[in-house]
Amino acid sequence: MERHFDEELKKLKNDLLKMAALTEQAIHKSIEALKSQDRKMAMKVIEEDTQIDQIELVIEEEAIEMLALREPKAKDLRFITTGMKLNAELERIADLAVNVAQRVLDLEENKPLLKPLIDIPKLSFLAQRMVKDAIDSFVNSDSELAKKVILSDSEADKLRNSVCAELINDYLVKDGGDAPRAIPLLLIARHLERICDHATYMSQDIIYMIKAKVVKHHPEKLGGNNSKK
């Protein structure tokens, strides 16, 4: 019985890794579609979201079944409940990648791009790194890596604010006719910053899983300067 439970826990972890990999790919593809103004790639991100949704349901069912039948305690209970939370956060992140792809389609109808992309690719890279590090911290029970993710969130806020300030002050305020090309970029920056927020939420839950310590709403417990979370 114990060995079978271990196999179930292993499968849950592997399914989460699969979902995380697909989610990371969705973020990457959505930004590549933006940079190259590739309509087909943007459509692919939207279409492939169905697969991520299906995996989310599988993981949810696995976790609920283990909670109901195995009655896990302490460490195993925290692992399963954290897995459920990560599952939900990854699905939301994938939805945000779809949102980025949809904005790419909006921009494709209003070519060319309003301005060269500088901070948005930086924000995208940060978002992908934070998601990857959050998952790695979960797999390796690495609370320091999870802490690093949380402390990176302020950088995401700064990049988002930089994009918004430039688009509003240098374009929208001066020429309202730029709105069709500026607003999708504003939304993309917001979507990417929200991805970083969800990576932060995952990391807060992971620290609880590892240390049974609540850092959500308690940044002082991280032992360093934290972001707004």
Structure characteristics:
single chain; 229 residues; mainly alpha; Methane Monooxygenase Hydroxylase, Chain G, domain 1; globular; disordered C terminus
Secondary-structure-based class equals: mainly alpha
CATH T-level fold name: Methane Monooxygenase Hydroxylase, Chain G, domain 1
Indicate the mean pLDDT. 93
For the CA atoms, what is the radius of gyration?
A: 19 Å
SS strand fraction: under 5%
Largest sheet, strands/sense/barrel: none
Question: Helix-strand pattern, N to C?
Answer: HHHHHH
Count of helix runs: 6
What does this protein structure show overall?
The protein is mainly alpha-helical. It has a single domain (2-222), classed as Methane Monooxygenase Hydroxylase, Chain G, domain 1. Helix content is 81%, strand content 0%. It contains six helices and no strands. The longest helix has 35 residues, at 2-36.
